[in-house]
Each structure stands twice: as C-alpha cells, then as structure tokens.
Automatic annotation (TrEMBL):
Residues 155-215, 219-280, 286-355 form the NolW-like domain. It comes from Jannaschia seohaensis. Residues 438-604 form the Type II/III secretion system secretin-like domain. Belongs to the bacterial secretin family. GSP D subfamily. This is General secretion pathway protein D.
Length: 681
C-alpha cells in the first residue's frame, strides 16, 4: 500500500483510449517506440489478471495505469476479486494507479474504494452485485440500514435527549462532506443523517458524545441589599465567567442564577457577599405631574410599592411619597436602587387623559282624545227635581246645579263644549231638559338633546330642570273655641326636568363602556286629591358598551290606551227611537312614544376638541335661526338671540381688547377674544 498512488488528474503520458491510440494531448516529442511499450504493458497486465481464477484470494496484481478509463479499472477489480458490479450510466472519469509492487485482491479492493471516493462515487451493496453510483444518487437509494460494505451510503434517525438540536448541528455540519445531509426534526427532537458508511460511524459517535446530560449544578445566590442587575453588570465587566458557564438574574427574587464549576460558584459567592452590603444612600427627588392628581397618584404608588417590598431588599419604611397640592408634584424619598423604578411608575401613570363627549337624544310624543254626549231631563215641583234622568260626569254641567242656579237667580255656568237646554216653569213647577256634547284632543311633542363632556373614568352630571316646591306636611295648634292657631306647612323642593349622569370608560379598541343614569320628569295638568302636584317621570339606569361615534338605543316605550264609559237607565235605554234619551256615553284614547338615544365621541387631542366645539356651535346657530324664523310670524316680535361661539375663531389669542355684542346684550363679563361672535348673520 505504501507504493500505491492514486490520482484522477491527467498524467503527462496522456490518456489511453479503448482502441489503444494516444490522445491528442500526447507530447509531440515522444517517439512511437515508447508508446508501443506502454500499450504492450497494459495488455500484458490485463491478460495476466484475466487468467486468474475468481475464487483465488491469494492472487497478486501489479498495476501501472495512467489515465485509464474508470470502467476498464472496474473490470480489472471485478476479475481480481470475483465481485460483480453494476455501473450507473452517470459514472464517468479516468484513473491513474501506480503500484510498482504486487497487490493482493483485498488490497486492490481498498485501492478501488479510494478511487471511487476521489471520483465522488460510492458502492451500494446488494445481493449478487454491488452498484457503483454517484454519491448524490446513493443518498436517495440508501435503505437506512448498514449493509456491511465500507463504501455503503446510509441514512439513519438519531434521537437527541439532552442537548438542543441547533447546538449539535452547529458543531457537526462543518465536519460533514459535501454529499452528506443532516436534517433536524424539532418537534420530536430527532436528527436524520445521510452519509457514507465508514464516515457515518465517526459522526454518530461525535453526536453521542455531545448528547450527554450536563453535570453542572445550578445555584441561586440571593441578595438582600444590592440589586442583582447591578451585581451582574460588575461580574460581566470583570470577564471571569469561563466558557460553558453562565450567570443570569432572577428579578422576582433579586438573586443571581449561576451555572458552572464549583470554583466559579465559590468565587461568585464571595464577590456577591462583598457587594451585597447595607446601602444607606437614600435619595430624594421631586416629580412635577402634568395631568394626574398628586394626592391620588401618591396613594396608588404607595399601595403598589407596599406589595412589592414584602420580598425585596428595601424595607417599606425607607420609601416616602408626599403629595404637594400647590404645584401638583410628588416628593419622593427612596433608596438609590428603587428611585428609578418609582419614577418610571409615576411617569407611566401621569399621562394625558382622554375625554368623552356624550350626546343624548330624548324624543317624546303623546296624543290624547276625549268625547262625551249626554241627555238630561227632570220634572220640577217647588223648584225641586222630583224625577228625571241625569248623566253628569266630572267637569261637565249638571242639571241639578243649573236648576238651583235659576231658582236662586245665580249666574249660570254651562261648562265647556256644546250645551243646549230647554224648559217650562210656572211658579216653582215645570219640566227642564239639557243636552251636552264635547270632544277634546291634546298632543305633546318633546325633543331634548343634552350633551356633556367628561374625562375618562370620571362621573359627570347635567341637570336642566325647575326647582318645584312640593307640600310634604302641615301643622296647626288648636286654641280656645277649637280655632286653629299658628298653622304652617312643610315644603320640599325637587328638580323637575332633565337629569343626565354618566361615567365613561375608554377601552383600547376605542369602545366606550358607560354607566348611565337618565331621568326626564314634568308636571302634569292634574292635581292629587290632597292638593299636591302630580309629576310624570321617565328614568333609566343601565350600563352599555358602544364604539366611538356610534349611536345606541338606551330605552324606549310605545303605549296605546283607550277607554269608554256608558251610563244608562235599565230597560228604557233600549227603547226604539227614544232610548237615546235614557243613556249617556263618553270615550277616550291615548298614544305615546318615548325614545332615548346616546352617542359617545372620544376626544384625545386639542384639535379634536376644537373641531367638535365648532360643529356644535354650527348646530346651535342653525337652531337659533330656525326658532327666529318661526317667531317672526308670532307677535310680538323679539330680537334675535345671539348665541355664544356663533362664528367663533378659536385660534385667536386672549390678549385682543374688545367686548363682544352678546356680552353687552346679556350684561355679563366678556368672553376671551378667541370666542369672538360674528354679527354678520
């Protein structure tokens, strides 16, 4: 083997083709005699090998091949070893083998495998014949199990138990030949390796050595005073952690997590003990707040810190947060290692709050109708009714009252509606009759659109009402002769009108959750029997979730009512033609509709607030013009009211010296100049 040299490059003598003629690359100066000798040596070697019997293992072969065809060399090996070979159509190339000493069949086979490897070829062992194929083809044809041949191409699945796949691939991939393939399967923690048989064992052994459980212990070094992050910065700056070891921080327990040999852990324990000393460097700072309330924010931060300091190094008594209401600032005293965390917490909470404009629409409409028709007649004897028919309802003229008024020469009140009376009276005797008819209708239409602006998570309330007195009691002392003395009454005043109370909460997706209390009340036209006022009240309390700018129905009511009352004289009222004289009838009908709508609008910047203000100002101006147009036809005509913000320029500064017309008309202090009123309209 020491005298054998293998090369796949062209030798100086040039290739020898199958016909024995020299290739064109042959040197021009070489004579024909030398070429003939080489051809004779080639033929003699082939004939000598061909005469050897196949099973004769001790046969010796002497090779001196220069740029011979690879297929011819395969024939020589097949004859010498007695093995059968199938050559893939893609196998091409030449070979130069210089073996001055004789080779046994086994040595020749080793030389053959090396020649195949240098030509990027390999063997696939089979039953009866071995296949010679390119290595890239062998990877696709390998069965996955070793076949015993030293040149076999194999594919195996290797399970990795202890080390991440990425670490093993990072180490193994540079050591693999170009034709080898390694594929990870992270879900099952497996490696699929395809490589030549004799190289496969080396790579598999390397993977097995890498995939060993780590025997490095893990230790936690707890710190009582120092911040673990600061200690880690010191350790990293010293560069004392060797390869394979690691130091990290557990912020929750304020501890160092060390993985490495015992000497490293001892060194870090000593260093941490020196750095973990009691700190007395308490510092103070003042933080001026931009939006949050100092007193409320101080309470929130202190409660948050009280929960954190239960397991931390800094005792709660060293941290003090004092609100200063005059400047809306926080005075903070805390250890140096905690002051930054507290300041970061304060800055996070001190953010510009969003606002919500809540617009409500309350629409109410009601219609009522009433009709009455009755006939009354009676006989008189000495100005007293001795018999007859009377159907007098509440509020309608009564025949008895009319007869008494005539007898006493008192004023006669016929009541409302149509009334027709007839009678004949002689002295105090006679007969009288009365026919009354009335039909009434009453309609009401109410549209209220209250609006209110409030901060996020802040309750707001708007009340538009009359403060009406209600009688709640009366008292009087009884003096001599049972005459009341010093009477007095107790009165309670209540708001009657519209009340809207809302608490909005803005969510991250620009939806608004609102707790709403709304009430609409009004005085009715009737009084209770005790003399007190009767109010009609519509109220709701609810929680809703609605997207910014959308309209939602909070509640509604649709009501229909009807009634009829008939009074009759039994028997006589059913007589034909004259039965109507013995009965009276009235009927009533009512309808009402109530709808309550609401729309929230999130305001996150000054520009949005300005835009909404201008929008509402335009709506108010349009409403005032409509009211003025209607009032022009109803005398007496009144001067048109000038509304605030009517044509206001909200971008003007406050330092312009002028008084607007609306302020002069209303006789109250002028608004800032940027709220200038436009009188052109």
């Amino acid at each position: 083997m020491e005298s054998c040299a293998v090369s796949t490059r062209l030798a100086a003598t040039g290739p020898i083709n199958d016909g024995g003629t020299a290739a064109p690359g042959h040197e021009a100066g070489q004579d024909m005699k030398t070429s003939g000798i080489l051809r004779a040596a080639w033929i003699a070697a082939v004939l000598a090998v061909a005469q050897l019997p196949a099973p004769q293992a001790a046969a010796q072969v002497q090779l001196d091949l220069r740029d011979a065809d690879l297929r011819s060399f395969v024939e020589i090996v097949s004859e010498a070893t007695g093995r059968n070979f199938l050559i893939d159509p893609g196998v091409r190339g030449t070979v130069t083998v210089l073996a001055p000493q004789e080779l046994s069949a086994a040595d020749l086979y080793d030389v053959f495998l090396n020649v195949l490897e240098l030509n990027r070829l390999t063997l696939i062992t089979g039953n009866g014949a071995d296949r010679i194929v390119p290595m890239n083809v062998a990877r696709e044809l390998s069965s996955g199990a070793p076949q015993g041949g030293i040149g076999d191409f194999q594919t195996r699945v290797i399970e990795v138990r202890n080390v991440p796949l990425s670490e093993i691939i990072e180490v193994v991939r540079p050591l693999l030949p170009a034709e080898a393939v390694i594929t990870p399967v992270p879900r099952s923690n497996l490696l699929i390796l395809s490589d030549r048989g004799r190289n496969f064992g080396r790579i598999a052994d390397l993977i097995e050595r890498l995939d060993r459980p780590s025997d490095r212990p893990i230790e936690m070094i707890r710190l009582r005073n120092a911040d673990a992050r600061d200690v880690l910065d010191v350790i990293q700056s010293m560069d004392i952690v060797p390869p394979g070891a690691a130091v990290s921080v557990d912020r929750r327990s304020n501890a160092l997590v060390v993985t490495g040999p015992e000497d490293l852990r001892q060194q870090l324990r000593r260093l941490a003990a020196r750095l973990d000393t009691q700190q007395s460097n308490v510092v103070s700072t003042a933080i001026e707040l931009s939006y949050a309330d100092a007193a409320a924010l101080a309470d929130v931060v202190l409660r948050a810190i009280s929960n954190q300091t239960a397991d931390s190094a800094s005792p709660q008594g060293e941290i003090r947060i004092v609100p200063e209401p005059q400047t809306n600032a926080l005075l903070i005293t805390a250890p140096q290692d905690r002051i930054d965390d507290i300041a970061e917490m304060v800055q996070f909470l001190d953010r510009r709050p969003s606002q919500v404009l809540v617009e409500a629409v309350i629409f109410e409409m009601s219609v009522e109708g009433f009709s009455d028709l009755s006939v009354q007649f009676a006989g008189l004897l000495d100005d007293a009714i001795v018999g007859g028919v009377e159907f007098a309802l509440t509020g309608r003229p009564s025949l008895t009252n009319l007869v008494a008024a005539v007898a006493n020469d008192a004023p006669i009140s016929p009541g409302s509606g149509g009334t027709f009376g007839v009678g004949r009276r002689t002295g105090g005797d006679g007969i009288v009759g009365l026919i009354s008819a009335i039909a009434t209708s009453n309609s009401t239409r109410l549209l209220s659109t209250p609006s209110i602006m409030t901060l996020n998570n802040e309750e707001a309330e708007i009340v538009v009402a009359q403060n009406v007195p209600f009688l709640t009691g009366s008292f009087a002392t009884v003096g001599e002769d049972a005459v009341p003395e010093n009477p007095f009454q107790t009165i309670e005043r209540q708001d009657v009108g519209l009340t809207l109370r809302v608490t909005p909460q803005i969510n991250v997706d620009r939806t608004v959750k609102m707790a709403i209390e709304q009430e609409v009340s009004s005085l009715t036209n009737s009084n209770a029997s005790t003399g007190g006022e009767i109010t009609a009240r519509r109220a709701l309390t609810t929680n809703v979730l609605v997207r910014d700018g959308n309209v939602i129905l909070l509640g509604g009511l649709l009501e229909n009512g009807s009634g009829a009352v008939t009074q009759r004289v039994p028997g006589l009222s059913r007589l034909p033609l004259v039965g109507g004289l013995f009965r009276g009838k009235n009927a009533s009908q009512s309808q009402s509709v109530l709808l309550i709508l609401l729309r929230p609008r999130v305001v996150e910047s000054e520009s949005e607030g300005t835009r909404l203000t201008r929008e509402i100002a335009r709506e108010a101006k349009a409403a005032s013009l409509a009211i003025a147009a209607e009032s022009d036809d109803i005398p007496p005509r009144t001067r048109q009211v000038v509304l605030p913000f009517d044509g206001a320029d909200l971008n003007q500064p406050f330092d312009a010296g002028f008084v607007d017309d609306a302020a002069q008309i209303r006789d109250y202090p002028p608004l800032p100049s940027r709220l200038r009123f436009d009188q052109k309209n």
